[in-house]
Amino acid sequence: MAAERLVVIGGDAAGMSAASQARRLKGPDALEIVAFERGHFTSYSACGIPYWVGGDVEARDDLIARTPEEHRERDIDLRMRTEVTELDVAGQRVKALDRESGETYWTGFDKLVIATGARPVRPALPGMDAAGVHGVQTLDDGQALLDSLDALRSEGPRRAVVVGAGYIGVEMAEAMLKRGFEVTVLNRGEQPMATLDADMGRLVHEAMDGLGITTVNGAAVTKILTGPDGRVTEVATDARTYPADVVVLGIGVEPETGLARDAGLPVGPHGGLLTDLAMRVVGHDNIWAGGDCVEVLDLVAGRTRHIALGTHANKHGQVIGSNIGGGYGTFPGVVGTAVSKVCDLEIARTGLREKDARAVGLRYVTATIESTGRAGYYPGAKPMTVKMIAELRTGRLLGVQIVGRDGAAKRVDVAAVALTAGMTVEQMTALDLGYAPPFSPVWDPVLVAARKTVAAVRGAGS
Length: 462
Ligand SMILES: Cc1cc2nc3c(=O)[nH]c(=O)nc-3n(C[C@H](O)[C@H](O)[C@H](O)COP(=O)(O)OP(=O)(O)OC[C@H]3O[C@@H](n4cnc5c(N)ncnc54)[C@H](O)[C@@H]3O)c2cc1C
Prior knowledge:
The protein contains twelve helices and 25 strands. The chain has helices at residues 13-25, 49-53, 68-73, 139-150, 167-178, 198-211, 258-262, 310-324, 354-359, 412-420, 425-429, 445-460; strands at 4-9, 31-37, 76-80, 82-88, 93-98, 104-108, 111-114, 118-120, 133-134, 159-163, 182-186, 214-216, 221-226, 232-237, 241-243, 246-249, 253-255, 287-289, 296-298, 303-305, 338-342, 345-351, 364-372, 383-391, 397-404. Strand 21 (338-342) and strand 22 (345-351) form a beta hairpin. Helix 1 (13-25) runs parallel beside helix 8. The radius of gyration is 24 Å and the shape is globular. Bound molecules: flavin-adenine dinucleotide. Its cofactor is FAD. Residues 340-442 form the Pyridine nucleotide-disulphide oxidoreductase dimerisation domain. Residues 5-315 form the FAD/NAD(P)-binding domain.
């Protein structure tokens, strides 16, 4: 028998990264690992679902990094289709429900990892559960959507309505376009991509128009209408209805923390579990949490946020597994970097938007520049817009947003590093970034933006 038992709740990015890292550091004699996953899959990339649905990725299984069998070969006792329904913190045990057999049982733990992820927001509107209305949170969701598309008539126009214009919404708009649908995106906000300022979101909107995707801003869905067969036919907003053969929901997610809340564990203002730097749940030395179910410290704003991204979930898992396995790791926080695309338009952001800066009492200047991803004379040079936000007086970088083509997205990583290092925009102007005509103009767009922002900081005085 192992010296101690680790129980993991949730078998995807954060949970199985934690389990795998702990196993790398501690053999089965020292640590028994029992992991519970209520779904059909483990260690899969939800991030790849839009590209699988759109046809860029051929098969569902291409998105699976590690199967349950592969985890079991590494001495992880992974129990699939088994949901943890109760957590007894004082008694150090969890109650599990085997969804296949209906059997319930308690399992004790010495150490616990909560990696229950996030659940999609589903407003309680009429028709939300109708046939032809699909989320894209899990591989099962992706498969159901593909099956639903296959079942549609092939003649005549096929119309898809995507509800939500965040990154999942715009990625799914692209996927449906590639599937040959006429696509309408219904966006409650002022512009698509609310993670950008509205002036940059407008560029995304214009580009989507150019791609043939209709985006309707300020459109709050009120109901989903169905035909006699119970399948979706239209989506209604306050203003009008939109014909739909299929509806894809990308309205956002909330941390899945019901279990942890019921057990009395601490959650923050955004509903995510609160952890320390080692990813231990605050006040509980033997319980860790990571991934979409936790809040993370925003290093620029100085307060916690809920950001559901796989990049964080994997890092959290690595840190948790290291600490449980007897090593050492911390997750200091994030600067809020995210990238996505709609067809060839790349969208990137890091740090604070203007409203984020205002919300935490920072005064700032902004500068926006137009440039290209390659030397202007080099074939294929395409436009790119960079918006930079810096603190008034100090010139400290606060945020960057980039919308453009041809290498726009990953340019934001330079800004993410500058934010992490606490650089000023003046310091950024001297960054030794690579240059050759196929990759960048002599002055990289990020440097051009930094120079203009320096001028704005100086112009604004103190
Ligand atoms: C369409 C889409 C595109 C995305 N694209 C990107 C991207 O480009 N870049 C990026 O960084 N991120 C992206 N993400 C986000 C990323 O997939 C998530 O942040 C990541 O999966 C979070 O991992 P997690 O382990 O915290 O949670 P999840 O992946 O949600 O895993 C949690 C698991 O816990 C299980 N579970 C929950 N409660 C219980 C319970 N009580 N008992 C047993 N099991 C339980 C769930 O079934 C689930 O499998 C995307 C997400 C989606 C849906």
